[in-house]
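Troubleshooting entry. The earlier prediction with nicotinamide-adenine-dinucleotide gave an output that would not parse, so I re-checked the input for stray whitespace and re-submitted. Clean input:
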Amino acid sequence: MKKVLLLVLSLAMLFSLAACGRQAETVQATPQPTQEPVVSSSPAEEPTTTEEETAEMTAEETSAEVGVFDLERGVVLLNSGYEMPVLGIGCFMLSNEQAENSVYWALRDGYRLIDTARIYGNEAGVGCGIRRAIDEGYVTREEIFVTTKMWTSDYDNGDAAIDASLARLGLDYIDLMILHHSQPHNDVQAYQAMERAVEAGKLRSIGLSNYYEPEDFDRLVSAATIAPAILQNETHPYRQSLEMKEHIAQYGAVLESWFPLGGRGNTQMLFNDETIAAIAAAHGKSSAQIILRWHLQAGNIAIPGSGNEAHIAENFDIFDFALSDEEMAELTAIDRDERFADY
Ligand code: NAD
């Protein structure tokens, strides 16, 4: 049965790679100095870290630089020791063809972070976009940071789910894999599969998504050997996730915002918010750019989604200005803890 499954997966991968119309090889990871963790004291690099030690990790015990955003370079150092770009392209609701184009345009325009998920059904398209950008010389594999997520129905078969994502993406390692949702009856099991994959060199950093209570995050961490590097939750100016951001910082974990612009159907509400629109006018920027700049200055990684070439370029053009302390305070004040999604 297992053999049949593997055969089906391999065929699916070959088919999807052929659908790119390009080479059907995986993108090899030739180890480069830049791929190595940059901080030797990071928790994920300590193979001897015990569960107890991980659970007791505090901000003092992690490097002072972990979690600090460097907006000159557009990166943040994770507790895994790897640097992660702080602005990326989101691929929710994109077909394989759209994802290929969005990823290709994004990498061409300077993005280095890509966010997809098994459940989006477009990992193969994302892989095609990556290979196109590499083939055309815009980036190397080592320069980019690819995130995907394990879906809840795969939690009992985490090892196979990781291999299947690698195959669909056409990569031989994934920079960050995240559990898509809290699922107390078997998410620890799935997380442990990701920990094994880190040991095996298939994953570099691991994290969580959709854990909204500090106790729920701690439940998972207390069973983990490797502290989550990231918590990806719905976060935007109307829901700023301040409590969870502060809570996870004790583990050196960084908040990543999904729905950074409010998500499909909600963006106009945020774009037309009086405070956001006034700050946008003052800087000669769009509301989307102000919101994204706010995320980065607030210490949130942002992954705006788009299948629109012009929007993708616009969303990355936020490194030539800064919001003042007063503007940041005004934006903090519009938080109303409002979620747009019900999951
Ligand atoms: P988003 O907040 O990024 O908003 C996307 C919407 O904004 C789209 O309709 C897009 O067309 C529009 N848009 C983008 N840039 C624009 C611009 N400059 N001007 C005007 N409109 C613009 O929402 P999202 O894409 O759903 O979320 C971002 C990413 O987060 C996703 O693509 C996905 O990768 C991830 N995500 C994760 C989860 C999770 O459960 N972990 C859930 C949803 C999304």
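This one parsed fine. Residues 309 and 329 are 32 Å apart (CA to CA).
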